[in-house]
Amino acid sequence: MKLIGLQKMTVLDFPGRVACIVFTFGCNFRCPFCHNASLVMGDGESDVSEDEFFAYLKKRQGILDGVVVTGGEPLLQKDIEDFLRKIKAFGYEIKLDTNGTFPEKLKSIVNEGLVDYVAMDIKNTPEHYAVTIGKDEFDIDCIRESVDFLINQDKVEYEFRTTVVAQFHSEEMMDEIGEFIKGAKNYYLQGFVDSGDLIGENMSALPKANMQKMADRIRPYVQNVNLRGVN
After folding, report:
1. Structural domains of the chain ordered from first start
2. Fewer CB near the last or first residue (10 Å), C or N of the chain?
3. What secondary structure, in 3-state letters, does the chain show?
4. Does the pLDDT at position 227 exceed 80?
């Protein structure tokens, strides 16, 4: 596994659990508003080894409830399944963050019981996906397959989420996104924050009032719609 960092505790990133966050290196997207540019495009120099990570998990048994596996895109890692099995062997619940581009691997991991919660990014409407992820063109079918799988399975908790950026998202787009994830249980509109480590430039957040209008627009399609990280 190509690990890049470890956040030793969070009470915000894994709903209902006290967890740590482990970051994997690399991503197949180049979203201009990505707040982890060095993690996606850097030299891959790691702050934590796999041995150090598992030593930490062993030490925190009984204190932490779960582990958030994020990136980058964790499902890029060839040995991700073995990595998740090792975490499970310590008795932890696992939340997986993914962009949804590896539906077969996602299905396998969920069906084997290797994760307990999946958070999948919905970058934009199907029409605007490519530009939002920094590509000239993109076949949306893999995203659609992952969306359909999560909505129709009953093995794990899941959420869809969109980081809203003024340069890429509008209130009108919410109807198309709503149709794309129609019937989903949970959807979050996340406020954009400039970390100072972006892939692109001149990205900005939308005001809370606009975010609330977006949430109202998508509510007819999704069971639970909420804002996250919006002041």
Report:
1. 3-228 (3.20.20.70)
2. C
3. CCEEEEEEEECCCCCCCCEEEEEECCCCCCCCCCCCHHHHHCCCCCCCCHHHHHHHHHHCECCECEEEEECCCHHHCCCHHHHHHHHHHCCCEEEEEECCCCHHHHHHHHHCCCCCEEEEECCCCHHHHHHHCCCCCCCCHHHHHHHHHHHHCCCCEEEEEEEECCCCCCCCHHHHHHHHCCCCCEEEEEECCCCCCCCCCCCCCCCHHHHHHHHHHHCCCCCEEEEECCC
4. yes
